[in-house]
Amino acid sequence: MYGVIFHFLRDYVIERHGGKDTWQALLEAQGYKFKLYLPVQDYPDEEIVALVETASKALNVPVPDVLEDFGSYVGPQLLTFYHMYVKDKEMNTFEVIETAGGSIHDVIHKHNPNRKPPRLSSQRESDNVLVIYYQSHRKLCPVVRGIVRGLGEKFNERFEINEIQCMHQGADRCVMRVTRVGSR
User: Is the Cβ–Cβ distance between 124 and 109 less than 8 Å?
Assistant: First the structure.
């Protein structure tokens, strides 16, 4: 897993779930007195899974809900981190998602061919409907749903997300139909 995601997880825990002491408690539960995650470094997927599972138990919240909430936090953060790939400041959620599936993941893979970013593509059905196709061995579709919601908050948009098929139900990829239902 790309280190920037660990960095965002740390910020998410600190900002939304009790501060630095909570983050330190999560690290210690994994056997670390101190651990620094560098944004451009790769770390084993198992590390982030363990941190999320520990957070889930501590919060008494199911893992998918923690992941979706994290996604809602990280969506706008990713937009800032990858600002050079955002065409202009007046984009909306759908335009950002359409851009992410191509240029951002292509650049990640280009700089490190061994990195395995998720496959993310989309198809616009109308101005208010976007179908998202997500495929990854990590099966982090709750994070994708959260990212959509987080970007919606940033761009003052509300969405209904209907997951048509899901890897957790045996599908080879997740398919989400996202309908814009108004502004916040």
Answer: no
Q: Is the dihedral of CA 157, 1, 54, 17 positive or negative?
A: negative
Confidence of residue 114 (pLDDT cuts 50, 70, 90): low
Give the chain's end-to-end CA distance (angstroms, integer). 33
pLDDT at 113 over 70: no
Q: How high is the pLDDT of residue 22? A: 92
Domain 69-183: CATH architecture, name and number where available: Alpha-Beta Complex (3.90)
Question: Residue 36 — φ and ψ, nearest 5°?
Answer: -115, 125
Contact predicate 143/71, CB 8 Å: yes
At 102 the three-state DSSP class reads helix
Query: CA-CA distance, 36 to 40, in Å (whole number)?
Result: 12
- Give me the amino acid identity at 156: N
Q: What is the tens place of the pLDDT at every residue in 2-52?
A: 888 999 999 999 999 989 999 999 999 999 988 999 888 889 989 999 999
Q: Where are the domains of the chain?
A: 3-61, 69-183
Q: What is the CA radius of gyration of the chain?
A: 16
Which residue in this structure is represented by tokens 């700089």?
Answer: 111
User: In the numeric block, which tokens belong to residue 111?
Assistant: 């700089």
